[in-house]
Amino acid sequence: MHLIIMGAPGAGKGTYAEGISKYYGIPHISTGEIFRDAISKETPMGILAKMYIDKGQLVPDDVANAIVEERIKQEDCQKGFLFDGFPRTLNQAIEFEKVLEKIGKQLDAAINIDVPEEVIIERIVHRRICTKCGKSFNVVTLPPKQENICDDCGAELYQRDDDNYETIRKRLDVYYDLTMPLIDFYKSLNKLVNIDGVGKKEEVTKLIIDSLEAL
Ligand code: ADP
Ligand code: ZN
User: Fold this and answer.
1) In what order do the strands lie in the sheet with 109-114?
2) What angle do CA 68, 71, 75 make, to 5 degrees?
3) Which of 10, 37, 89, 151 is the most buried (most CB within 10 A)?
4) pLDDT block averages, 10 residues each, the chain of length 215
5) Atom 23 (ligand 1): residue with closest C-alpha?
6) What value, to the nearest 5°, has the Cα angle with vertex 200 and ends 199 and 205?
């Protein structure tokens, strides 16, 4: 399966992506996670990305495109992939189509997670992330079994620097301006799978897999 998952910040892309990638045995590749990893390691790309991410802006297209072009060529992507948070602009989507064509692959579906803004803001302010494996929790709706500790790897959880009220507003505006047009782009390619993202993690994940299986 060759998939992308889109949706506003906080829509639950990473959370649902986890179950989908397990089901199909394909790598879950989050560009946001790649940037956060680079930031924590203070690589040149991380230092650059941080300037944009802290302001709620997108990292420049050429940086995101280069990461994906490199990543998709790796061995684990041979049987498929699930990109989470990429593409995020029309330019990225068009470049991605070119990359896919170059390597002789086609996207099977573009999953769009639809969640109303009130739910998004609520999810973002309550979000906590694992410092080690990047897994997301929600202190209200999806709490870890042990407070502030990752269920999967036992590392400590933290709140992302960009998960604060001021930055969320900016990220939502960027989403409406630059990312939402991708819904029509993938609809026109006949690849769009639209999903109501409000609900329990297991229920929404099942809904997505059922919709993909029905294609
Ligand atoms: P969220 O969807 O909650 O915003 P992500 O982890 O997907 O979280 O992204 C975090 C930040 O990383 C984004 O706000 C953006 O600045 C940057 N980012 C992630 N993916 C991309 C991309 N494809 N293009 C540009 N910037 C990106
Ligand atoms: Zn973890």
Assistant:
1) 28-30, 81-84, 2-7, 109-114, 192-196
2) 150
3) 10
4) 97 95 98 95 97 96 97 96 98 98 97 95 93 93 96 96 91 97 98 96 97 96
5) 86
6) 95
Asked if residue 171 has its Cβ within 6 Å of ligand 1, the reply is yes
Domains of the chain by residue range: 2-116+178-213
Q: Name the closest ligand to CA 144.
A: 2
HSE, side-chain direction, 13 A CA sphere, residue 156: 3
Collapsed DSSP state (helix, strand, coil) of residue 176: helix
CATH no., domain 2-116+178-213 = 3.40.50.300
**How many angstroms separate the alpha carbon of residue 160 from the centre of ligand 2?**
14
**Percent of the chain with pLDDT strictly greater than 90:** 96
The β-bridge relationship of strands 109-114 and 192-196 is parallel
CB distance 127 to ligand 1 below 6 Å: no
